[in-house]
């Protein structure tokens, strides 16, 4: 497995490098100190499995790097690892196609769990109000009439709301099934219904809508 760390702080790169060594056996870790170097490394190593990128870096920052990599390498998971704990930053990043948003305030074990989840094909966003990072709440989105969209305007069953809340907690379908004591196929049916009700094309959009409206709390 090959992972790229892009961060302008050498001490953080060193710490994350050390943490990632326990992720899997035979992991190869590369480092870049800015977005420009990160993009060049991705070009030179098309077999990369994951990119972990800081948001604020000199030159090409993490957001610009994310957009560039998503355009040229849409299958490569790019995760933003950042000190920013503003929810509007997280929403902007996730809407731009990131595979995850990991606050630097996470413990090493929380980071590893998040990265494993992403490598398994899921997305990762932190839980609002968690002890490891409290996010500032942005205003709720407006609907076509210019009024705020409320949670009670979405037609979700109580069970679908339970599933959606666990989706917001970053849980996979299998984990949700185990948590709620139901078959994984049943969870998939609920997820499909949730996406339709929220007019979302994927889990990321559904989680963002849930966070914006309070459905995920």
Number of domains: 2
Order of helices and strands: EHEHEHEHEHHHHH
Question: What is the annotated CATH architecture of the largest domain?
Answer: 3-Layer(aba) Sandwich
Count of individual helical segments: 9
Q: Which strand order does the major sheet show?
A: 2-1-3-4-5
- The CATH top-level class label of the largest domain: Alpha Beta
Strand content: 5-15%
The secondary structure category is alpha/beta
Which value, in Å, is the CA radius of gyration? 18 Å
User: Taking all residues together, what is the mean pLDDT?
Assistant: 82
| Number of DSSP E strands | 5
Specify the biggest β-sheet. 5 strands, parallel
Shape: globular
Assembly form of the protein: single chain
Q: Percentage of helical residues?
A: 40-55%
What would the CATH topology of the largest domain be?
Rossmann fold
Instruction: Report the span from N to C terminus.
Output: 36 Å
Question: Which spans of ≥5 residues are poorly predicted at pLDDT below 50?
Answer: 129-149
CATH superfamily of the largest domain: Response regulator
Describe the structure.
The protein has two domains: 2-119, Response regulator (Rossmann fold); 151-213, Orthogonal Bundle (Arc Repressor Mutant, subunit A), CATH 1.10.10. Helix 6 crosses helix 9 (203-213). Strand 3 (50-53), helix 3 and strand 4 form a beta-alpha-beta unit. The protein has a five-stranded parallel beta sheet, sandwiched between helices. With 217 residues, it is α/β, with parallel strands linked by helices. 33% of the residues are buried. It is globular, with a radius of gyration of 18 Å. It contains nine helices and five strands.
């Amino acid at each position: 497995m090959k992972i790229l760390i892009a961060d302008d702080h050498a001490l953080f790169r060193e710490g994350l490098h050390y943490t990632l060594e326990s992720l899997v056996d035979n992991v190869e870790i590369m480092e870049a100190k800015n977005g420009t170097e990160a993009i060049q490394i991705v070009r030179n190593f098309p077999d990369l499995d994951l990119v972990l990128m800081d948001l604020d870096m000199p030159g090409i920052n993490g957001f610009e790097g994310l957009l560039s990599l998503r355009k040229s390498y849409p299958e490569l998971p790019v995760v933003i690892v950042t000190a920013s704990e503003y929810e509007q930053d997280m929403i902007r990043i996730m809407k731009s196609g990131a595979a995850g948003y990991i606050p630097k305030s996470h413990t090493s074990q929380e980071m590893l769990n998040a990265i494993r989840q992403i490598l398994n094909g899921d997305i990762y966003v932190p839980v609002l109000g968690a002890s490891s990072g409290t996010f500032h709440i942005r205003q709720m989105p407006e609907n076509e009439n210019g009024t705020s969209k409320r949670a009670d305007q979405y037609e979700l069953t109580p069970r679908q709301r339970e599933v959606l809340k666990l989706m917001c907690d970053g849980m996979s379908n299998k984990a949700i099934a185990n948590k709620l004591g139901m078959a994984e196929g049943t969870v998939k049916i609920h997820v499909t219904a949730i996406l339709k009700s929220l007019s979302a094309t994927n889990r990321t959009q559904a989680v963002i809508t849930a966070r914006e409206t309070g459905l995920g709390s």
